[in-house]
Design goal:
Number of strands: 5
Structural class: mainly beta
Shape: globular
Radius of gyration: 14 Å
Strand order of the largest sheet: 4-3-2-1-5
Order of helices and strands: EEEEE
Oligomer: single chain
Distance between the termini: 23 Å
Number of domains: 1
Strand content: over 45%
Helix content: under 10%
Length: 68
Amino acid sequence: MAGVRHVWVRPAFAPTEMPGLVLGWRQTPDWEAQVIYVDPRGRVAVEWMAADKLRPIPAQQRTGSAYG
């Protein structure tokens, strides 16, 4: 799954950010990402969201050790 990116998602209905994955991008007048995340009720949601509703989660450096 090349190009999949972990992000924080800010849906309109949620009071907080939730972790999600970017599955793809498209350009309408502005950039949108197809994102998958679990909503507060525990349901899996897949939707197109404006890029300004997403925040990248920094990748952790891999050390090659099972302990981080």
